[in-house]
Specification:
The structure is a homodimer. Chain A has about 190 residues and is mostly helical. Chain A contains twelve helices and no strands. The structure holds a DNA duplex (18 and 18 nucleotides).
Chain lengths: ~190, ~190
DNA sequence: GTCTATACAGTGATAGAC
DNA sequence: GTCTATCACTGTATAGAC
């Protein structure tokens, strides 16, 4: 609710009055639940963490799938999460708020980014152990793996109101090409 | 000047009073030069376009260098531009402002993003013509080429105030690994 | 072209009744 | 736990003198 408003109008562009109205409350009631605007924002951000991580966790824990299948599933999940979910789309917003409130950045990193990276690293480690993936530096893999997805999400947010959005940023094709590129980089033989 | 303020505090977080003060003017004088805040912001953004493009243009026009050398030089330029220059760092800011003023996004795309992509595409086309690069889809290449760099810039903005910035986001290493990955993807033999 | 002064809407946040 | 009413303040923008 408040999350949607923040996404649409930014942090400074979303007033407590607007949030109260959208929540069917008055401002004063809102301030009964949250000490201030930052706390409310942080609640919005952390609220979205859980679900985004759980789908990756089930992929990692799957005993049936091969490392290559898991990699493909991780791509599906990450593209879906970063591009469609509220938390994923919030990156630029978090960057904006982080300037004034660095603890927002810290919490985002520790509770969202690092667990994500760790899960992706686990999938890659499973593949390396099975002898099908080359070992690769973890930071570099995050750079090449998550980088394009976040930028795609940012671009799509930026051009959300344009009617040729999907023509210029075709998620499916870009995802497929990206996956092939990563495979070319890490698959053995 | 105003650009730096926008970068530090976001669009809504930067007041006309603050800009006027930093410019050694009063608010009223500022409004003599710019009709409103958006116009001033657009002026800041477009102002940075020129230089950012010119360095890529000289690389493309170079008759001496091999396509592989040009690719490496383009990496140096893009990393430097996106991470260090004002325009490059402005992407999240432009995303913020674009929600309210879509023409900002359009101008950014047409005058900055598309020319950039076209120049990179030219380097790749030169390599393909010379028989050293495989042909590759233009949109995909932008996704894989520019995506990681923009996300790196965004991350570094987000964690700019943290003392372990360069440890977590080591530009040099990531750039080198990224270049190797792109080469693995497009180099023939 | 730059200034002082100001209009006026909206902001985050609080006091106190119910 | 929610309300009405209000606080002090800052925001964008403008009028009019010099």
């Amino acid at each position: 609710m408040a999350t949607d408003l923040f996404l649409q109008n930014g942090f400074a562009g979303t007033s407590m009055s607007a949030i109260a109205k959208a929540s069917g409350m008055t401002k004063a009631s809102l301030y009964y639940h949250f000490a201030n605007k930052e706390d409310l924002f942080i609640a919005c951000v952390t609220d979205g963490y859980q679900h985004a991580l759980s789908s990756l966790e089930t992929i990692v824990a799957d005993d049936q799938a091969s490392p290559e299948e898991k990699l493909s599933q991780a791509f599906d999940t990450l593209y879906d999460t970063v591009i469609n979910s509220a938390v994923g789309r919030m990156s630029p917003l978090i960057a904006e708020v982080s300037r004034a409130f660095p603890q927002v950045a810290r919490s985002f990193r520790e509770e969202y980014i690092l667990p994500h990276e760790a899960l992706v690293a686990q999938i890659l480690a499973q593949g390396t152990k099975a002898g099908v993936f080359k070992p690769i530096d973890k930071k570099l893999m995050s750079h090449l793996f998550i980088g394009p997805i976040v930028t795609l999400s940012l671009s799509r947010e930026m051009f959300a109101k344009f009617d040729d959005l999907d023509e210029h940023f075709p998620v499916g094709e870009l995802k497929a090409g990206h996956l092939e590129a990563i495979k070319a980089l890490i698959l053995i033989n």
